[in-house]
Amino acid sequence: MIKTILFDVDGVMLSEERYFDASALTVWELLFSPVYLGLQGDSFTPAPEEAEIRRIREQVFAQEEVLQFIKSRGINSNWDMVFLAFSYQLIRLIERLKPQVPEAASLLTVPLERQELARLREWARVYAPDFQVEYAAFLADFAKSSAQKADLLLYVNELARERCGVETRMFAPNCALWQLVQETFQEWYLGDERVAASIGRETMQPGKKGFLTDEIPIVPPEDMIELFRTLQARGYTLGIGTGRPSIETHVPLREMGLLEWFDPERIVTASHVLAAEENCPDYVPLSKPHPFSYLKGMLGLSTPDLDVIQYPLPIANGEEVLVVGDSLADFLAARSIGCQFAATLTGLSGQAAHSQFEERQADYILDDIRDLVDVL
Fold this sequence. Notes:
By secondary structure, the protein is α/β, with parallel strands linked by helices. It folds into 2 domains: 4-15 and 216-375, HAD superfamily/HAD-like (Rossmann fold, 3-Layer(aba) Sandwich), CATH 3.40.50.1000; 17-212, no CATH class. It is built from 17 helices and 6 strands. The protein has a 6-stranded parallel β-sheet with strand order 3-2-1-4-5-6, sandwiched between helices. Helix 1 crosses helix 2 (50-60). It starts with a strand and ends with a helix.
């Protein structure tokens, strides 16, 4: 009998659209802003209009095909998505520069930070002013690998070897470039007013409005409130396991009247995951599809991170815990835990995900979370 229900946020309660917008804008900025690579071919601004955002996202993710591919390999973090998309174009640029600037390839063997990007920017300006970003080429190169989840990030090292002839292990979860990507994404999502509280500094390029006050609920908030009220009245303990940082979880859910229905001890965010990765570096990565987020929600925030990581799996009382998510990463996390899983068809793939979850034998498949009342 189910006692605890742990919900994902994006694709379940809130639309992922703004996260994908911020992801595309981050890749675009890193490629074309004069603060980063400053490539020719697109004009950067920190405050694009909505029509421009739509254009950028369509290009960066090749009409969503790149997004679909990355998510199909079990990657659920937008930070990882941006890291993969940008790292690939970075390697293509170095491949182009190498004949004229042999030392460009050596940058792949050191932590890639702002100083290294600045050197590439100067070389590209002189030796590759006509370099063309090919977003869709990502698909063919990554499809050659069967890598799943965090291994997909490590596969970038293999692409560096194939394209640039460089042996490296610099591309990895939480590497210097990944952290730069993560902070730049936070600038876009949070905007100038809120970013300092998240990453400890102001935006590198002021003018970003942020998306946090422009969230899109998947179903009307009043319907979700009624759902959570009903579940709480029936005695279920409600928690959250999300890839969003804490501020991006608490602010919109509080504004919509949803946060109060969840046990504060069981609201686990990407901020908790990052803290656990710092505390327990031998176990990186801990983001989904690793079960850490949901396990921490099941056990409670007061449970030490190492105790969560080393908790025996599958759990003995798997029938008492239900994870509600929209992605393969959520499903894999639930299966690792040994608990039940309810798939919502409100993520990126929509109803097309039905066959995928049916094939994988999800315990429940819901059109949206409102169906949970009838299922239970």
